[in-house]
Amino acid sequence: MTDPGFDGNNGADPDTLEKDGISFAQQAVTCDQHNKHSMAIFFYTEAAQALLNAAMSGSKMPGIVDKAQQYITRAEELKKINSRNPQAMNQTMSSHQCDMERAKFLLKQAFEEDEMGNGQEAIDLYTEAVELCLKIRNGTKDAALQEKVKKLASQALDRAEDLKKKLSPKSEVTPVVTPTNKPMNSAGKVVPPLGFGAFAGSDDEEQGSQGSVPNVTRARSQKGTSGVINVGRNAYTKEEIDVLRITSDVNGRLYVPFLSVDMKERFAFPVPFSDKDGKLALSPKQKQNFGRWARPEDFCDDPKMIIAVSSFSIRQTIVSDCSFVASLAISAQYERRFKKKLITSIVYPQNKNGDPVYNPCGKYMVKLNINGVLRKVIVDDFLPIDQHGELLCSYSNNRNELWVSILEKAYMKVMGGYDFPGSNSNIDLNALTGWIPERVSMSNDIFDKDKEFKRILDRFHKGHCLVTMATGDLNDAEADRAGLVPTHAYAMLDIREVKGKRLLMLKNPWNHLRWKGRYCENDLTNWTPELQKALNYDPKSAQMFDNGVFWIDYESLIHFYDVIYINWNPELFKYTTCMHSTWQAKEGPKKDRYNISDNPQYRLELKSNQPSAVWCLLTRHITDKNDFADNREFIALLVYDTGGKKIFYPHDPPPYKDGVRINSPHYLCKLIENKKNATYTLVVSQYEKNNTIHYTLRVFATCEFSLTKIVDPYKKQYEKRLTGQWKGATAGGCSNYPDTHKNNPIYQVKIDNSNTDNCVLIELFGPKEYSVGFEVVCVSANVPGGFTKTTSGDFRRGYVVLQLDKISGGIYNISPCTFRPLEEGPFFLDLNSSVPFTVTQIR
């Protein structure tokens, strides 16, 4: 693979963590001095965490652990003070403060529209700001506040009037309306609904959070901002647009693809925004404790979207989304560690630096990778709280910080509500970041524990991947002894190999409850002085503060955990493309054990003279949250080394790459190729297919390649299905039984032309318990030189196929049979031709 250029230091950068710790400590002291205890507690805790992690990462700062202990101690003291004064923990904003914040936000948005030359939009915002300022002035007796809002209103009004004068009538655009009341542009063309029109031929291209997953167009050899080249056609086909349209309806709500026009979404309003889709469904535990829906000003005194992007401040509550919270934690750690925006870039509104900001008007937009493309998700800022004012959703330890709760709400909205049954971190991280999901089962017979540890150790510290771990089923007694939660996701914050010991640092999304086995904070036997020094880890300091973070040895991890979820940075691959398609339920058999001729197939051609890495990701689109709780759709992607030819039989030839069908929405197939200019056939496979599935096939490669869908040249031209049966004398068996074989059914096909390049595909479908086949006899050819007799080859259970290429016009007899005589049953004989034909049954 190519190296994307991340540094390969061993663990988080200690210098960066030291600077974070010092900065947090300074803010904590300032808040402490001004009796802002809640903020001081947050910053003291963050400072301690940063310094302890710097110590574990090799920091040489004198007394760093002692400093961290002092900050922890002070935070605990302030918590005790606040526990005696509950009001100090629950300061909120007054209604005048809320109105002032909205007025300032309206003015700020107006200024930005003004600067960009959007005159009419700026006028509207200035006017709304003026009206809100007048409302504030009339609703207060505070003379200073009245004077302040009067001044703001005057400035806004003056600027709005200036803009109105500049917008002459000639420059104004008059909306054109068709007789059908459909909006039209100045050229008289109907504006397409839902933003899908841009998919058909727009030159605009929207990049994912890492700039590698396009969702509008796939310009040939067009280089994105990340250096990833998107290869393929210039625009999506009608079929692809239909797929994306259909799977925009998720859990009964519409989530359209994210287009560049969405960057102009309006977020400022004179009154608080409320989501037209209503409140989210609550989980059973939330309902038991529910008090009311509240906005940030109801439980914050100074709301902010982000104060510190920290993995340690994230806390899961009673929503069953541990995998999502674990995903947030490692994404936050990545942002801080590599100073590269990963998830904060997907939240809007944003300031000019691209940082998400608090919106006092209550509207947010989150860009999530859902069902094959980036999609926009709109939410308001209503959050569930209990009777005591405590949040009933995931949140930051800093009550004034909202990014955790807003991101969770957006994802839960797509997933159908807070009563979400749960998923896994592969799915959640892909939705948040677009990074490539890989699932590694530690209980699999082919699991190579040594190789896997080395791979993760190397790639994690280079910034190539994000990693979470999930426990398996544990009984109550075992879970209690181990300090672990059954079937629970944990974020991996670090991985080390020191003095022959292989250790991983994990975080429980609950922010408490830690591992109790080897290398826990109470295990002073294994934490030798030498090992403590090598990792700069002080178990006694860790004992003071349970934040759910712990070290565990690799052998214990393998014993108690079941799955490793790895999401890979797509920037590791220089080239990528994707296709969106549908596989109808009626196409092909329910089980593809005998016949895969109707399975979706693709030709993958690599253009390289050196070893290359090619990863193929199959993503099944999910539109109902019940698919997570009771998913019976098992998918896989098979690879055949056949030069890109269509495949008819699943095991003839055997797959070059086979795999276990899984009921996850994502299936990853990895190829590391040494052959020059290799060409493969990719086949979508599904076990016991009952329903129509919509899917996305995305290919990532370190070399140039082309991906094209294999279209059967015979299908949808001239086709006919014949229904027949073997019964009594007509169940004559194969040619090994000449006395009865002559009695098998015969169908005569006539191709009335003198061409020599005719193509015919013949398929025979019979009972799965019988081996079937057929022979084709040329009765008369319009052009001499063709074949006299041919067969479908080896007899096969339930299905055989024969392609006749470059045959001349003439008359041909087709005789289907079972291998043995007296094997009775129905059959279908499907004929597909490139030219017109007639067929009659002559026996």
Strand and helix layout:
Blueprint: H1 14-33, H2 37-56, H3 64-84, H4 86-89, H5 95-115, H6 119-138, H7 143-166, E1 176-177, E2 183-184, H8 197-201, E3 222-223, E4 229-230, H9 238-246, E5 249-250, E6 253-254, H10 284-289, E7 290-294, E8 314-315, H11 322-338, E9 347-348, E10 363-370, E11 373-380, E12 383-386, E13 395-396, H12 403-414, H13 425-433, E14 436-441, H14 449-461, E15 465-471, H15 476-482, E16 489-498, E17 501-507, H16 529-535, H17 539-543, E18 549-553, H18 554-560, E19 561-568, E20 575-583, E21 601-607, E22 612-620, H19 626-629, E23 634-640, E24 666-673, E25 679-687, E26 693-701, E27 704-709, E28 718-726, H20 738-741, E29 747-751, E30 758-765, E31 771-781, E32 789-791, E33 796-797, E34 799-807, E35 810-818, E36 825-833, E37 838-841
Parallel strand pairs: 4-20
Antiparallel strand pairs: 1-2, 3-4, 5-6, 7-12, 8-13, 9-10, 10-11, 14-19, 15-16, 15-19, 16-17, 17-18, 20-26, 21-25, 21-27, 22-24, 22-26, 23-25, 28-36, 29-35, 29-37, 30-34, 30-36, 31-32, 31-33, 31-35
Helix pairs in contact: 1-2, 2-3, 5-6, 6-7, 11-13
Provide a descriptive summary of the structure in words.
The protein contains 20 helices and 37 strands. With 843 residues, it is of the alpha+beta class. It has 5 domains: 95-169, Up-down Bundle (Methane Monooxygenase Hydroxylase, Chain G, domain 1); 237-433, no CATH class; 436-567, Cysteine proteinases (Cathepsin B, Chain A), CATH 3.90.70; 574-709, Jelly Rolls; 718-841, Jelly Rolls (Sandwich), CATH 2.60.120. The strands form 10 sheets. It has a 6-stranded mixed β-sheet with strand order 3-4-20-26-22-24. Residues 1-11 and 171-225 have low confidence and may be disordered.
